[in-house]
Design goal:
Blueprint: H1 6-10, H2 18-30, E1 43-46, E2 62-65, E3 72-77, E4 82-87, E5 92-96, E6 103-106, E7 124-129, E8 135-139, E9 144-148, E10 155-159, E11 161-162, E12 165-166, E13 173-175, E14 181-184, E15 206-209, E16 215-219, E17 225-230, E18 236-241, E19 248-255, E20 258-267, H3 269-273, E21 283-285, E22 291-295, E23 298-302, E24 308-313, E25 320-324, E26 329-334, E27 337-342
Antiparallel strand pairs: 1-24, 2-27, 3-4, 4-5, 5-6, 7-8, 8-9, 9-10, 11-12, 13-14, 14-15, 15-16, 17-18, 18-19, 19-20, 21-22, 22-23, 23-24, 25-26, 26-27
């Protein structure tokens, strides 16, 4: 159930500190590169010496795929040594092997034969793997969480309703150690959003699907919940809020009963106001607790206390990311392309 007063707590203001000064300076440096045009050459802004232990100085970001309508949902499949990523408006999931071009893997990736007057994004959005190595899909167009066997391509719906009502358009997921699936359900897949005639939910929720099949609404007070992740010890739940008026990243204390103690980890309003492209979106958490999260302006590395470490920029939104290659690379879906950032061996693995 939604905890009383969570959204009210989220609106409490921070006192300016070193973190806020760093964010302001970073936004001013980055702003000239941001615009509405095509993405520029990726670059890394180092904001703390601590970043050197993650990414070696002089490391360059490489582009591994281009020509995508909207790249999203990357996930690395170690067993097959390939990357999967989605393109929700094109209704395709593509597969990339090192040294080759991306090729279609699921087409369609979401719902078939949808009406564009009703469904804005028919395809898969967020992707992840369950504890058995099967692909989980946040099916935006099908309004469900699906599971796909990567060998046979057999597909099944895991869940599509809460208390008898259909989800809006599931967006992103995180699988906990016990197999529970945490996911967000904004209305982005619906053409008319909150006013869509298809919308059955009164909220845009954050949910937990327990291994036994019970669905719990953890948070129902956010306008646009999007990216989601857990801390390595699974005592914190992070949720990105892609709200134009109040872009932010929330953090909650988490236990078996649900969430509590909601607070704003990162207020991204100033970054957006200074011209940062995009909004808070997808995120991943490293084994040491470092957050890699989409923000206005690019993909940010920051500590669990929101101290900025580095920002990857292209001048266009970078929507999501995934660790891969046994922690030696970070893959980023960046508007019309996919990027690969080499990481220091041994530093990183997904939390």
């Amino acid at each position: 159930m939604k905890q009383p007063g969570l959204e009210r707590c989220a609106k409490k203001a921070f006192q300016p500190g070193r973190r806020d000064i760093l964010f302001g300076a970073m936004a001013m440096v980055a702003a000239p590169a941001f615009g509405a045009g095509a993405a520029a050459e990726p670059r890394i802004q180092r904001l703390s010496p601590a970043f050197d232990r993650m990414v070696a100085p002089g490391t360059r970001v490489e582009t591994i795929a281009t020509g995508i309508r909207w790249a999203e949902g990357p996930v690395w499949v170690e067993a097959g040594q390939f990357l999967l990523f989605s393109d929700p408006p094109s209704n395709i999931v593509r597969r990339w092997h090192k040294g080759g071009p991306p090729v279609p893997f699921l087409d369609p990736s979401g719902a078939r034969d949808t009406d564009p007057k009703l469904i804005r994004e028919p395809g898969a959005n967020g992707l992840t793997l369950d504890r058995e190595g099967r692909l989980l899909i946040a099916n935006s167009g099908g309004r469900s969480i699906d599971r796909v066997d990567l060998v046979t391509r057999r597909r099944e719906v895991v869940v599509d309703r809460y208390q008898g009502k259909r989800f809006n358009s599931p967006n992103d997921m995180h699988v906990a150690r016990d197999g529970a699936i945490y996911f967000t359900d904004p209305p982005y897949g619906l053409t008319e959003g909150d006013t869509s005639p298809l919308k059955e939910m009164s909220v845009n929720g954050v949910y937990r699907l327990r291994p036994g099949g019970v669905v719990e609404l953890l948070e129902g007070g956010l306008t646009r919940p999007n990216g989601i992740a857990l801390s390595p010890d699974e005592t914190r739940l992070y949720v990105s809020v892609s709200d134009e008026a109040a872009p932010r990243i929330m953090v909650y204390d988490l236990d078996a009963k649900g969430v509590r103690n909601a607070r704003v980890l990162l207020d991204a309003k100033a970054m957006k106001a200074r011209g940062g492209a995009g909004l808070p979106d997808g995120m991943k958490v490293a084994r040491d607790g470092t957050l890699v999260c989409s923000v206005p302006g690019g993909m940010m590395f920051m500590t669990p206390d929101a101290e900025p470490l580095a920002l990857v920029t292209t001048g266009a939104p970078i929507a999501n990311c995934a660790f891969g290659e046994r922690g030696r690379a970070l893959f980023m879906t960046a508007n019309d392309r996919v990027l690969r950032l080499p990481l220091r061996a041994g530093w990183q693995s997904e939390g």
